[in-house]
């Protein structure tokens, strides 16, 4: 970590306290334009930020300012997107396993709908008239860095099987549904570009069955590096190969289409820094623990996905390296990193976790009745408090008192 960044984070945690989430918009902007540049040879490209990665309203507004659309998975995310200023047609709603009641609520908002279930598709066609849809296809391709984030394989709950295409066509023809788009998402942390291109080819073959599409949505899942020397998706190679094939397909299809992506982690992961304070150093017969004022209630990814986050001691960046297992204060196994080589840690030091912009605060909880941290947005390198730290009153705000 660069010394200027360390100094900046030290200043922020002194001002706002710990635990603390910090997001740098300069990194978000760089990732956004990096992705657009990779697909510059396609005339019409639309990025829809997958906001489940980080739904803070200020972050959504920033993506709006960049020209992004929004990928949502719940009625609440749709509502947040509208509050952030997105036009309804800039929002696509891609639910899984929701009730038809929620789908009708979303339709009332006027946003784009992506359907991944034959039953819902048939009900939609019979009850909702003159409202275009996108259809999510499961290409039966295993991709992604972890089984919990791999969504395109044959045992996945997501999407309608490619082998059920005749059923899709039957429903579409019988009900007269206008299909405006075709979609797939194979999973997150994709390294093998060829696997992604294989899925794209499947999607092109499906698209030929629908004669008036407006867009094809290739999902996302592009991998970012988590540590020095780590691999990442070769975006430029993917952009070159997919652009060639997409442009050829448009000629075959005799219509200009929009290529859509829905990146989430790729856009915000590296922008995020999570700062915690060291409560105590505890040495056992086999391990030296650095126990901090946070846990999987604030950052669950290491426990949930076995995710790796670089951990830096920003209080003692020049100290000698020692080995620590960094753990939280939750009353369960609560490990952030095992036997990590970190500059010597002392009680009261501040540690910083990198790649904390995606699926960190958004997956946080109040487990153990712990309070959620504050969030800071760096805009033009100036810090803005975009979510205050919770208080006990926040925990009590939705409870109802009864006499016992």
From TrEMBL:
<dbReference type="Pfam" id="PF00278">
    <property type="entry name" value="Orn_DAP_Arg_deC"/>
</dbReference>
<dbReference type="InterPro" id="IPR022644">
    <property type="entry name" value="De-COase2_N"/>
</dbReference>
<dbReference type="InterPro" id="IPR029066">
    <property type="entry name" value="PLP-binding_barrel"/>
</dbReference>
<keyword id="KW-0456">Lyase</keyword>
<dbReference type="Pfam" id="PF02784">
    <property type="entry name" value="Orn_Arg_deC_N"/>
</dbReference>
<keyword id="KW-0663">Pyridoxal phosphate</keyword>
<dbReference type="GO" id="GO:0009089">
    <property type="term" value="P:lysine biosynthetic process via diaminopimelate"/>
</dbReference>
<feature type="binding site">
    <location>
        <position position="332"/>
    </location>
    <ligand>
        <name>substrate</name>
    </ligand>
</feature>
<feature type="active site" description="Proton donor">
    <location>
        <position position="331"/>
    </location>
</feature>
<feature type="binding site">
    <location>
        <position position="359"/>
    </location>
    <ligand>
        <name>substrate</name>
    </ligand>
</feature>
<comment type="pathway">
    <text>Amino-acid biosynthesis; L-lysine biosynthesis via DAP pathway; L-lysine from DL-2,6-diaminopimelate: step 1/1.</text>
</comment>
<feature type="domain" description="Orn/DAP/Arg decarboxylase 2 C-terminal">
    <location>
        <begin position="21"/>
        <end position="357"/>
    </location>
</feature>
<comment type="similarity">
    <text>Belongs to the Orn/Lys/Arg decarboxylase class-II family. LysA subfamily.</text>
</comment>
<feature type="domain" description="Orn/DAP/Arg decarboxylase 2 N-terminal">
    <location>
        <begin position="28"/>
        <end position="269"/>
    </location>
</feature>
<comment type="subunit">
    <text>Homodimer.</text>
</comment>
<protein>
    <recommendedName>
        <fullName>Diaminopimelate decarboxylase</fullName>
        <ecNumber>4.1.1.20</ecNumber>
    </recommendedName>
</protein>
<dbReference type="InterPro" id="IPR009006">
    <property type="entry name" value="Ala_racemase/Decarboxylase_C"/>
</dbReference>
<comment type="function">
    <text>Specifically catalyzes the decarboxylation of meso-diaminopimelate (meso-DAP) to L-lysine.</text>
</comment>
<feature type="binding site">
    <location>
        <position position="359"/>
    </location>
    <ligand>
        <name>pyridoxal 5'-phosphate</name>
    </ligand>
</feature>
<keyword id="KW-0028">Amino-acid biosynthesis</keyword>
<dbReference type="GO" id="GO:0008836">
    <property type="term" value="F:diaminopimelate decarboxylase activity"/>
</dbReference>
<dbReference type="InterPro" id="IPR002986">
    <property type="entry name" value="DAP_deCOOHase_LysA"/>
</dbReference>
<keyword id="KW-0210">Decarboxylase</keyword>
<feature type="modified residue" description="N6-(pyridoxal phosphate)lysine">
    <location>
        <position position="52"/>
    </location>
</feature>
<feature type="binding site">
    <location>
        <position position="221"/>
    </location>
    <ligand>
        <name>pyridoxal 5'-phosphate</name>
    </ligand>
</feature>
<feature type="binding site">
    <location>
        <position position="305"/>
    </location>
    <ligand>
        <name>substrate</name>
    </ligand>
</feature>
<keyword id="KW-0457">Lysine biosynthesis</keyword>
<dbReference type="InterPro" id="IPR000183">
    <property type="entry name" value="Orn/DAP/Arg_de-COase"/>
</dbReference>
<dbReference type="InterPro" id="IPR022643">
    <property type="entry name" value="De-COase2_C"/>
</dbReference>
<dbReference type="GO" id="GO:0030170">
    <property type="term" value="F:pyridoxal phosphate binding"/>
</dbReference>
<feature type="binding site">
    <location>
        <position position="301"/>
    </location>
    <ligand>
        <name>substrate</name>
    </ligand>
</feature>
């Amino acid at each position: 970590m660069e010394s200027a960044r360390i100094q900046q984070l030290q200043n922020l945690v002194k001002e706002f306290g710990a635990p603390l989430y910090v997001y740098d918009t300069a990194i978000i902007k760089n990732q956004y334009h990096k992705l657009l540049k990779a697909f510059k040879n396609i005339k019409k490209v639309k990025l829809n930020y997958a906001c489940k990665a980080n739904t803070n309203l200020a972050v959504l507004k920033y993506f709006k300012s960049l020209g992004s659309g929004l990928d949502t998975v719940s009625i609440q995310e749709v509502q947040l997107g509208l509050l952030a200023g997105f036009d309804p047609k800039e929002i696509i709603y891609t639910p899984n396993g929701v009730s038809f009641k929620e789908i009708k609520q979303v339709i009332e908002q006027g946003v784009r709908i992506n359907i991944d279930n034959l039953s819902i598709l048939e009900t939609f066609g019979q009850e909702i008239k003159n409202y275009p849809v996108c259809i999510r296809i499961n290409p039966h391709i295993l991709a992604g860095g972890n089984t919990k984030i791999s969504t395109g394989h044959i045992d996945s709950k997501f999407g309608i099987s490619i082998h059920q295409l005749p059923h899709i066509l039957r429903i579409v023809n019988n009900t007269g549904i206008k299909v405006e788009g075709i979609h797939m998402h194979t999973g997150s942390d994709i390294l093998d570009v060829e696997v992604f291109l294989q899925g794209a080819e499947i999607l092109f073959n499906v698209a030929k069955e629908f004669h008036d599409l407006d867009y094809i949505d290739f999902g996302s899942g592009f991998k970012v590096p988590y540590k020095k020397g780590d691999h990442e998706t070769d975006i430029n190679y993917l952009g070159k190969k997919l652009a060639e094939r997409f442009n050829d397909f448009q000629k075959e299809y005799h219509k200009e289409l929009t290529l859509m992506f829905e990146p989430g982690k790729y856009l915000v992961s590296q922008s995020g820094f999570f700062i915690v304070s060291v409560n105590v150093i505890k040495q056992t017969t086999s391990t030296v623990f650095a126990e901090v004022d946070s846990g999987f209630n604030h950052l669950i990814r290491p426990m949930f996905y076995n995710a790796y986050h670089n951990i830096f001691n920003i209080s003692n960046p020049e100290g000698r390296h020692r080995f620590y297992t960094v753990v939280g204060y939750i009353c369960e196994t609560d490990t952030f990193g095992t036997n990590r080589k970190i500059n010597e840690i002392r009680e009261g030091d501040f540690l910083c976790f990198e790649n904390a912009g995606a699926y960190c605060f958004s997956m946080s909880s109040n487990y153990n009745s712990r309070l959620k941290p504050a969030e800071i947005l760096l805009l033009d390198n100036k810090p803005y408090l975009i979510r205050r730290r919770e208080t006990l009153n926040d925990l009590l705000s939705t409870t109802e008192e009864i006499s016992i």
